[in-house]
Design goal:
single chain, about 250 residues, alpha/beta, TIM Barrel, globular
C-alpha cells in the first residue's frame, strides 16, 4: 500500500511539474554539500531549471538555504552524512553501521527537521555504510514511510543502496557522472560532455557536482544550451515517475 501510494504521488508530481512526459534524452543535476556557505548556495539557486539542492543537515545555513531553494522552485533533498571507510568525520547528523534501529530513526528525523522541504535523500560519503545490508534496509524502510526518494551518490562501487531501495519500493536513481572530481575548468567541461553522451545513449543521466566556482561558472554557461542540443533538465522525481510508467505492465 505504501509503495503504491508513493508511486502514485510521484506520477502526480511529475505530471504537474512538467505538464507532459519529457521526450528525448533527459538530465538530472544535483549540487551537493550546501549548508555552510550561503553565498555559494544563492548562486546555485539562481541556476536555470530544476537543479537539485542537496543540503547537509545541522549546518549553519541549512534551513535558510532549503527554504530559499524551495521558494525558487528548486528541488531540495537531505544530503545525509553516512559512515565512510576512511577515518573521516562526515559531519553532524551522520548515521553509521553501529547505530541501533531507534538511533538511526532518531538521527534521520532530526536531520530531516533541519532541512525543510526535502523530497528525498542522498548519501554524503557513506562508502562503508552503503555496503551494509542491514542498516541500509532500515534506512530505506524509513524513507518509504516518509514517501521520500533516494539518490545513490555511488561513492563506493559495492554500494547496495539502489538494490535495497528497489526491494523496499523506494524510488531511486544512481549517479552516473561526477562533474568535478577535480575542479579544473577542463575537467568540468569534459565531464559535462560525458554527461551529454550518456544521456543520449541511455535516455537519461544523472550528474552530481559541488558549488565550486569553476563548476558554477561552467553550469551558468552550459545549462542555457541544453534546449538547442535536444536535451532537457528534469527533476529526479520526474525521471523516477517515467521509469515507473515504463515498468508498469
Amino acid at each position: 500500500m505504501a509503495r503504491a501510494s508513493l508511486l502514485a504521488a510521484l506520477l502526480l508530481i511529475a505530471g504537474s511539474a512538467s505538464g507532459e512526459p519529457a521526450t528525448g534524452p533527459t538530465i538530472s543535476l544535483v549540487i551537493d554539500d550546501l549548508g555552510n556557505n550561503r553565498h555559494e548556495a544563492e548562486r546555485v539557486i539562481q541556476l536555470p531549471g530544476s537543479v537539485v539542492c542537496a543540503v547537509l543537515p545541522h549546518t549553519r545555513h541549512a534551513a535558510a538555504i532549503a527554504e530559499t531553494a524551495h521558494a525558487h522552485g528548486k528541488p531540495v533533498i537531505l544530503h545525509l552524512p553516512m559512515e565512510p571507510m576512511a577515518d573521516i568525520d562526515p559531519g553532524p547528523g551522520q548515521i553509521d553501521s553501529h547505530m541501533s534501529l531507534a538511533q538511526m530513526q532518531n538521527a534521520l528525523e532530526s536531520d530531516l527537521a533541519s532541512v525543510p522541504h526535502a523530497a528525498g535523500v542522498s548519501n554524503h560519503m557513506g562508502s562503508l555504510m552503503t555496503a551494509q545490508p542491514v542498516p541500509m534496509r532500515w534506512l530505506m524502510r524509513a524513507l518509504t514511510r516518509r514517501h521520500l526518494y533516494f539518490i545513490d551518490s555511488r561513492t563506493e562501487s559495492g554500494s547496495l543502496a539502489a538494490i535495497i531501495a528497489r526491494q523496499e519500493g523506494v524510488p531511486v536513481l544512481e549517479r552516473q557522472v561526477f562533474l568535478d572530481p577535480d575542479p579544473s575548468p577542463a575537467t568540468v567541461a569534459r565531464q559535462l560532455e560525458r554527461l551529454e553522451q550518456l544521456a543520449r545513449r541511455h535516455g537519461h543521466a544523472l550528474a552530481i557536482g559541488h558549488p565550486y566556482l569553476t563548476t558554477l561558472a561552467a553550469l551558468e554557461h552550459w545549462l542555457p544550451t541544453l534546449e538547442a542540443k535536444g536535451l532537457k533538465l528534469v527533476p529526479p522525481d520526474s525521471r523516477m515517475a517515467m521509469v515507473q510508467r515504463e515498468e508498469q505492465p
